[in-house]
Amino acid sequence: MSAHQYDEGHTVAGWTGFAVVTLGTVVLGLGVCTASLAILVGGLAIVVVSVLVTWTLHLTGWGKPPGLRPREQWGWRTRDLTARAGHPGCVGCRLAGRGRKAMPAAEAYGASPEPVAVPESAAGPDFAEVPESAAVPPSGP
Question: Terminal CA-to-CA distance of the chain, rounded, Å?
Answer without folding.
Answer: 85
